[in-house]
Amino acid sequence: MSNVTLKGSKEGFVVIINDGSDFEQSLEDLKALILKQNIGSIDDDVIQFTIKTGNRLLTAAQRKTVKTVFKDYPQIEIKDIISNVEDKDEVSKLLKDNKINVETGIVRSGQKLEFEGDVLFLGVLHEGAKISTTGSIYILGQVNGIVQAGYPDNTNAAIFGNLKNAAQLRIADVIEIVTEDNADKLANHQFAYIDEMHSISVDDLQDYKEIMNESRKRTG
Questions:
Q1: Each residue's pLDDT tens digit, 73-121
Q2: What is the CATH number that goes with domain 97-217?
Q3: Per-residue pLDDT tens over the stretch 153-192
Q4: Residue limits of the Septum formation inhibitor MinC C-terminal domain (predicted)?
Q5: Which of 38, 126, 130, 180 has its CA at 20 to 30 Å from residue 63's CA atom?
Q6: Which CATH architecture has domain 4-87?
């Protein structure tokens, strides 16, 4: 089997690097393959290639080396480098970020619970206690203390549930103190989030998807 294969598809040109081949030899074969192509002048449209590496996961240095090969030919460029496998650290981070923690206990005054990922809170959070996480928090229990989502800087996090008896809401670096004036809007079927003014707003759950999509567009 050849170390490097060129294929055309609806998505454009694809260069497949055999995942069982020697990487250095594959680079030489890649250079030879490029030279065989009928590359036009620099005034012609740029041709994009997608590099597929199968079950081989390129290191950052190897990805840089592959891109360097293409730099010698300004008429062609790499659209993407795709592998069938994922980096272990990235997968671990993804799982951690999407982890849902379930907390059912009583958190007494002076206690502080910290999590990574989203939290489903079914317990009791006393006044003077705090629950904090990097993701969003879903409140189905009773809260009288401080509820913090998106710690320390996740502005796309949100807090759901009945929060009218909470002492404070915190999302990323924004704090909302719950008082008699705003408690009524923090009842069930609402969610709190950071709006375009970087303040905490509260809206109906039925509008969650639309509002958060707009928020993610702003924050990238």
A1: 777 888 888 888 777 777 777 667 677 899 999 999 999 999 999 999 9
A2: 2.160.20.70
A3: 999 999 999 999 999 999 999 999 999 888 888 887 889 9
A4: 105-197
A5: 38
A6: 2-Layer Sandwich (3.30)
